[in-house]
Design a protein that fits this description.
This protein is 70% helix and 2% strand. The chain is mainly α. The N and C termini lie far apart (55 Å). Belongs to the PqqC family.
Length: 246
């Protein structure tokens, strides 16, 4: 059974309603944005969050591998370039990208530079020695989900990007206001996501509404987005516990 336009609007509204479960409401995120974290706690968060940042291209590659739609693949592959950069040093977006001497290097590089800005060495970021088991488990679960579930469900799980721009804007303002010891150049990742996330979420929402036209597929998409919210929340649970005594 194909649903009506009204049902589609209700579906999109239900997807957006998942914002109530987004990790911006987590107590750790609230304390960070209120300027209540110490330097070691910020470093703990940056080091652990890198495990997620580093996994994003693998998640997107899994979606590409399962996706039979050429036009979707053509647009989705840009996400990998945004995070990995490319062999010739390009990546990110035309405006608001991650620039290094005029060359855009991608989101992973930007997060490594955030690590440097908070006092973490590149090697200790890249080898993920500070990543706690709960974060590692949540990240692996997300990549496995993208690899093993139907590709449209994996796309739906990415729709947390609908909620990301507000969080990124709030986080950027909070870091500039409360954590002035961090080199402002290290905050380039957040600035880039202000433009990347709306672009990416618009495409993902287009794909999900086009391909999820029955009650069953729409319920699966909602469950996928709920799962992704659980992944992000679980990561902060683990980080909050790890940072408690720092």
């Amino acid at each position: 059974m194909t649903l009506t336009a009204t049902a589609t609007d209700e579906f999109v509204a239900a997807l957006r309603e998942q914002s109530r479960r987004y990790h911006d409401r987590h107590p750790f995120s609230r304390r960070m944005n209120d300027g209540e974290l110490g330097r070691e706690q910020i470093r703990c968060w940056v080091a652990n969050r890198f495990a997620y940042q580093a996994a994003i291209p693998r998640k997107d590659a899994a979606i590409l591998a399962n996706c039979p739609d050429r036009e979707v693949r053509r647009r989705w592959i840009r996400r990998i370039h945004d995070h990995d950069g490319t062999a010739d040093g390009e990546g990110g977006v035309e405006a608001g990208g991650i620039e290094a001497g005029g060359i855009e290097a991608g989101g992973i590089e930007a997060w490594l530079r955030l690590g440097g800005a908070v006092g973490l060495g590149r090697e200790e970021m890249e080898d993920q020695r500070h990543v706690v088991p709960g974060v590692r488990f949540a990240v692996d679960a997300y990549v496995t989900f993208a690899r093993t579930r139907p590709w449209v469900e994996a796309v739906a799980s990415s729709l947390t990007e609908l909620f990301a721009p507000d969080l990124m804007a709030e986080r950027l303002a909070a870091f500039e206001r409360h954590y002035t010891w961090i080199d402002p150049q290290g905050l380039a990742y957040f600035r880039a996501r202000l433009t990347q996330a709306p672009r990416d979420s618009a495409h993902a929402l287009e794909v999900v509404t086009e391909h999820c036209r029955t009650p069953e597929t729409r319920a699966a998409a909602l469950a996928a987005l709920s799962f992704k919210c659980d992944v992000l929340w679980s990561m902060l649970d683990a980080i909050d516990h790890a940072c408690a005594d720092r």
